[in-house]
Structures are given as C-alpha cells and as structure tokens.
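Q: Fold this one first, please.
A: Sequence and structure below.
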Amino acid sequence: MASEQELESLHIIELAVLCQRAADNPALDNDTRASAAALELEWVQLVQRETPPPPDFKTVQKIEQDKAELSTRMVKLLATI
C-alpha cells in the first residue's frame, strides 16, 4: 500500500475505493476488513447527504468537515495495510 503522505494526496473517492478493496481482500485480518468496510459505508452515507444538494451553506460546511475527518481516518487505516 502507499505511504501515508501519498494517501493524503488522494481524493476521498479514491480512498473509498481503496477501503472497499481492503474490505474485500481475504488476505487481510477480519478486524482490518471490517474497519475498511465501515469507513467505505460511512463515505456512502456522506454522499447520500449531498444528494440532492443541501439547502444551506451551514450544512455544506458540516458535510465538508465530515469528509475531511473521514479522509483522515481512511488514510490512517490504509497506511497500516
């Protein structure tokens, strides 16, 4: 897997794809796979909150903040694989 610095440069969609691949990888331990699946599911739920577009800027800001926090957690997990 890539280094933490390389992972930080990826878009959240790419991180979600990597989490999905990790969740589907039978070579990884069950805890890692479960964590990756949970992060990918959280990303799906964030995308659903954006569709249709939020009605106000405050909601958009909250979603962006949640995405940043999720990206950080994805990077931390993926860097350990």
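Q: Good. Now the second chain.
A: Here it is, same layout.
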Amino acid sequence: MPDLVVANDVARRYGAGDASTMALREASFGIDAGEYLAIIGRSGSGKSTLLNLLGLLDRPTEGRLELLGERVDHLDDGRRAAMRNRHIGFIFQFHHLLPEFSVRENILMPARIAGRRRDRSVDGWADELLELLGLESLAGKPADQLSGGQKQRVAIGRAFMNRPDLVLADEPTGNLDSENAAAVNGLFRRVHEETGTTFVIVTHDSGVAESADRVIEVRDGAIVRDTAPVHLTPV
C-alpha cells in the first residue's frame, strides 16, 4: 500500500442542489514517498481542486483521504494547519514572497511560523538551501529586488525549510519565460534527487510533465490516465 498518500473515492462538490458543481469525482490513487508526479489537464478540469485537497487547503465532500497513515478528510482546522506546516511545502505560480524581507528571511519564514528557535540546525539548513539553489550571493537582498526566476528559487527554498514529506507545486513555471521555466524544472529534479522529497506538480508545461516519473491526467473532474510505476497498485 502507498505510504504517503491514499485517496479512496475522493470527490469535491461545490454548491448544493441543481446549482452544484462536481469539481472532482471518485478519485482513487496512492502516492509513495519519493515519487515525482505531474498532474495535467485543461483549465477547469479539476486538477487544482485535487492539489488543494492533497494540500489540506480544502476538504473532500465525499470519500476518504489519508496522509502518512492518518485520515485527514475530517480533521479540524487547527490540526489540518499543523499538518500542512509540518508535512507539506507549497510552491505557487505567483511567489507570494514578503517583499520587505530578505531572501534568507523569506526562506526561514516557515520555521518562524512553526515557532522553531533560530539555532544552528535551522540556520545551517537555510544555508544549505541557499547553496543548493544558487542564492548565496543574494541572501541579504530584499525579495522585491529579485527577478522572476530568482523569486521562484526563493519560493522553492521556503517550501523546503521545514523539511516536508510532500511538496505541492501549482503551475510553478506558468509565470516564467522558457529559459527560466527550464531552469526551475531542472532545479526541481535536482532537489528531488538530492533530498528524496515527494513532488506533485500541477502543470500545463509539457516539459515539466515529460520530465515526471508519473503523470495523472484529469478531465471533467475525473482521473482518466495514471501512468503509475508498475510496482504501484491503485487503491
């Protein structure tokens, strides 16, 4: 059985009665630790809804969803927030950096939110991330003085600050030119190889999808294709 995520007949309906919309229907799959997975589909297909459910930003209206062996579809808001901060890192198309803070301070922000003390292990990990992402020379620079590609690298570092089990990326190259998009995609693969962290990436970028080890395609709210490795058995 997959050891990171298990989804059984997960669905999400918005609204009620005749005016309701089924954004995701009866999705069943599993994700093993260490996978590098892309979710593809047209706009409005349900792929972002699926990502929001995996990230505990939304709740399914039907079905069962587990993260690291714990059922999460019925958790209260406080417990969901705690699990998000501890186990999940987010990378978005728009970086949502804090412009008045430096590169280093933005990367450290998740540790600050989690109430972790600034000690040698926290600062040392931030230094490792800065080096891994080629940001050492920019550590003290305000975030609002960075290029788009540099901002996305900072967002990657921020997502990894709390050493998450799962990184969710929503159209991470959608706001970048082709050169920076290719560079960010290469960084994703390198970080994945060096850390072993699970990646799930929602994307329209064919280059990102083609580089993934597994692709889930969503159409009209349903999973229509899952190129799972042969050792995985869908739930």
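Q: Anything worth noting on the second one?
A: The first strand starts at residue 5 and ends at 14.
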